[in-house]
Amino acid sequence: DGSAHGPWPCKPLWDTCASHPRAAILPAHLHCLPVPCWHGDWVWLKKFPGDKHTEIKPATKTSFCKLRDLRHENVNLFLGFFYDCGVFAIVSEHCSRGSLEDLIRNEDMKLDWMFKSSLLIDLIKGMKYLHHRDVVHGRLKSRNCVVDGRFVLKVTDHGFNELLEAQKIPHEPPRPEERFWTAPELLRDPTLERKGTFRGDIYSISIIMQEVICRSAPYCMLDMPADEIIRKVAKPPPLCRPSVSVDQAPLECIQLMKQCWCEQPERRPTINQIFDQFKNINKGRKTNIIDSMLRMLEQYSSNLEDLIRERTEELEIEKQKTDKLLTQMLPPSVAQALKMGTPVEPEYFEEVTLYFSDIVGFTTISAMSEPIEVVDLLNDLYTLFDAIIGSHDVYKVETIGDAYMVASGLPHRNGNRHAGEIANMSLDILSAVGSFRMRHMPEVPVRIRIGLHSGPCVAGVVGLTMPRYCLFGDTVNTASRMESTGLPYRIHVNIRTVTILHSLKEGFKLDIRGKTELKVLVPLTPDPQPLLARPCPPALPVPLTPDPQPLPWPRPLPCPLSLGHAPSSMATPPLRTS
């Protein structure tokens, strides 16, 4: 009922934990553990088996009094016991760094020999105190050794077997992996195993020494199941023990460890002998708690700095990957503005040149191919295009199906060079497509048509979830029409782009195509009758050839020279005008 028992007032600690203002700041890794808050401090609950305890027996209270009087810096403090609604548990001091098992398994924590020896000497001091008080631990393992915030090791769970015996609680057989620390003579005698012995505690110390020295689980070097290991330990020969390399610890420490796990209990050293031998291992160096704590704190601080530096470098690498991916999707200036939370206003560009291209007969190719083959085709083709545009002052706007859109003159203005950049890029793409082959249909050539147009447009970012950098204006529509009315393997160019190319004087060769019907927008006249769309006149008044068939294509194409160096007689694919 949560009433007081002896000198320890023990109301339900779970209710205390839930209502206490500090309960909300319990460390994240402890939320799933029995760590309530009692009188403003975190405490540890060790629950007894079963949930139908009806009374606290007198022998149990006597054992509690014995535990209460144990006071040592390396023995975890016993605070009281909890009894409510049939649940019975002991309350002990909580250590913030968890168990010794947690510490040695933490790969981020670097443990040198001085650090390890400080932990081991704390263990030996704590067990020496308990043995001098005639207390047999009986359950000693790395999980029952806790480390506080100052890296001081404290022995806990002592006296638990005695409490189980006093309270007449049925014994629950432990799992095989929980018996690694149990001495062979105890494994062979279940009754003796339940009570424990002083010599059995010495054996447990040796297994903990192996864990600390190797920073690994007991018997981790033996490739066999836990129950098989326990069977071999309990029934020698041959003798089954962990193996430790001589370069992992001083030779004297390894020899002491082997003495402690000797098969004959009477040949194992006493806790006083272990303490004396271990003091001599450090060869006169101080191992008092203050010096050890300072060294451990310095080591911990250094480890923390290294860990922060390592994590910062990893974060910077991931940030660079994210920035690179973002700048591939959006212009760098726009991406930077979005990262800073700055609104991106639409921007008007007086004159840019736009490029559109698509695959001729793509619908037929798609009908004859599997979906994955279509994806491979577009990926291979666009990878080829992306490699080409990297050497020109252009910006890839988007791809929609088989349509590929590129612009020059935005988002960074480049005078009137935009037309020349797009023209040279178009020639490079056309030349590369001539030798491109589909994986699944290598005998079928890939034919593309290209349309170019120059003019004003507005660019801006549209959307929040998946923002896109989009272009708007008649120039976009006209460039798309130039592509859709073009011919395979030809570059269809509007007169406005032709004018800019002539002004650049870079030796581009252009052929007049002639009349081509396009869909156009016309203003309404006072006459409400709709006007008929008229065919666009040719760019220059030149007669059509008798046979207006497209020129044979593809044909071998030389690589275009750099801007400003292409001679007027250079053999380049003709750019068509309308």
From TrEMBL:
User: Domain named Guanylate cyclase: which ranges?
Assistant: 353-483
- Primary residence: endoplasmic reticulum
Keywords noted in UniProt: cGMP biosynthesis, Coiled coil, Disulfide bond, Glycoprotein, Lyase, Membrane, Nucleotide-binding, Sensory transduction, Signal, Transmembrane, Transmembrane helix, Vision
Any one Gene Ontology MF annotation carried by this entry is: adenylate cyclase activity
Q: Which domain of life is it from?
A: Eukaryota
Tell me the Pfam families matching this sequence: Guanylate_cyc, HNOBA, PK_Tyr_Ser-Thr
Intracellular or extracellular location(s): Endoplasmic reticulum membrane; Photoreceptor outer segment membrane
| Gene Ontology annotations of biological process type | intracellular signal transduction; receptor guanylyl cyclase signaling pathway; visual perception
- UniProt EC number: 4.6.1.2
User: What protein family does this chain belong to?
Assistant: Belongs to the adenylyl cyclase class-4/guanylyl cyclase family.
Protein name in UniProt: Guanylate cyclase
